[in-house]
Amino acid sequence: MFEPLQLWRAQWVAAALWRVVHGEARWIVLDPKVSPLSIPALGRSRDLTGWSGDAPAFLPIYVPRAPFGEPPHELYLWRDTYLRFVKGLSLGERQVLEAYLGTGKPKRLAVTYPSETAPSRRGLKVSPYVNRDVVEIFVRLAGLCEVRPLDKGEEMS
Known about the structure:
The protein contains five helices and six strands, in the order αβαββααββαβ. It is α+β, with helices and mostly antiparallel strands. It has one domain.
């Protein structure tokens, strides 16, 4: 149903947004007059739409090397893109998103398994412990992110 790269990216987008909601990460504001520390954390209000300031902001999401060989890269989720996405969700989808982001610990969206064709490589499939609707929402959201390859010096191992 989902391509392995879609699942891999969705998993990291979900983890990054969970961290924002719980005050462990913040949107990076591009306006030098506005300090990112002055932006209230989403976790305090549990509001999925976040801070309503006009300054453009993004959430950098590091995506490590995938078990199936995709090199590490970074995704940029722009705040205005995220806000439009959340506003476009149906009530049920929004409740599913809120339930996932409000949990005490983020659940993995995908699990690895040994590849039948190449035992040294690993495959990726949807975790049986997470609602498929959650996975679908984060796959759609990950598809809206800007993909940025890492420079050789930036790659984390």
